Amino acid sequence: MARYFTGEKIEQFKECFDFHARRGHISHEGDLSIIMRSLSFSPTREEISKYFKKHVSHEGQLDFASFLDVMHEHSSVENCKKELQAALVAQDRSHLGYVNCTDVRQILTSMGEKLSRNEVDTLFREAGIPPNGQVKISEFVQTVMTPSPDY
């Protein structure tokens, strides 16, 4: 896997994996989901299930080498920033870089990993977006894609 990731990236993956896989392996799909999300990836439940079934050993365990295979496979299909940007640009009928909050709410509550109404309200509040206003697409994508401080 060194040919797919830098040494620094592998170290980052290893540190996160070892934190969650105290025995050197994981045995549940939920653990795989937590680790991947901790690394700022956003796999769907279906993707997690597919990866786990494909890469788990006969003993029902996923070790770090197999985890790297999962990460390589997933990183080649996921580009959250680009996907979110494309979904919002498609709603920008005037091509000015803005979209209505109602449209953003509709996208976030009905596509992909659907957010609840409360989650969208919290996201808007934290991003400083008025509930009935306009959203500047580039700023919204940047805000949503910037990881939260972990302290």
Automatic annotation (TrEMBL):
Keyword match ATP-binding: no
Pfam families: EF-hand_7 (PF13499)
An example Gene Ontology CC term for this record: myosin II complex
InterPro entries in alphabetical order: CALM/Myosin/TropC-like, EF-hand-dom_pair, EF_hand_dom
Chain ranges of the EF-hand domain: 82-142
Entry keyword set: Muscle protein
Record flagged with keyword Membrane: no
GO MF terms, alphabetically ordered: calcium ion binding
Source superkingdom: Eukaryota
PANTHER family in alphabetical order: CALMODULIN LIKE 4, MYOSIN LIGHT CHAIN 1, 3
Protein's name in the database: EF-hand domain-containing protein
Source organism (scientific name): Littorina saxatilis
